[in-house]
Amino acid sequence: MKEKDINHVRRKFLNYLGWFATLGTLGGVSIAHVRYLFPNILYEPSKSYKIGKPQDYLEGVTFIADKSIFLVRRGETFKVLSAVCTHLGCTPNWIEEKGVYECPCHGSIFNGKGVVVSGPAPSPLPWYDLTRGTDGRLFVDQRRIVSFSKELIV
Ligand code: FES
User: Fold this and answer.
1) Pocket of ligand 1 (CB under 6 A)
2) Domain boundaries, the chain
């Protein structure tokens, strides 16, 4: 092969390599731009929501799993307690016979008011604001922590 042919082949190879690098870069940048239009967003569930009408709930403590709350009904009064353990976030169980919430993960026990009786939990279970909407349904606002004594009377 002559020197001239070798140079020609080298030039063609470098030419293709240049085009390959340029198109690869443009392709990568284009993909990044399109990806930028669709960001990874986690839509958190709303912290305020309706949970049904008072008559939908029986006397006592009802666990509402999809909201991680306990609805406590005593006669015509209603309250809502968080069902997320303040230690590491497990779901305590309501033990009717003992009148306590027991966390199955590390043994924290909360009394009927949500106060820590024993275990590693650092703070009580919070009570959430509960009101009644104009349509008669119960409305929970987890952004508003209320005291145990606040209750909704229907
Ligand atoms: S998560 Fe409840 S005691 Fe640890």
Assistant:
1) 85, 87-90, 103, 105-108, 119-121
2) 1-41, 48-153
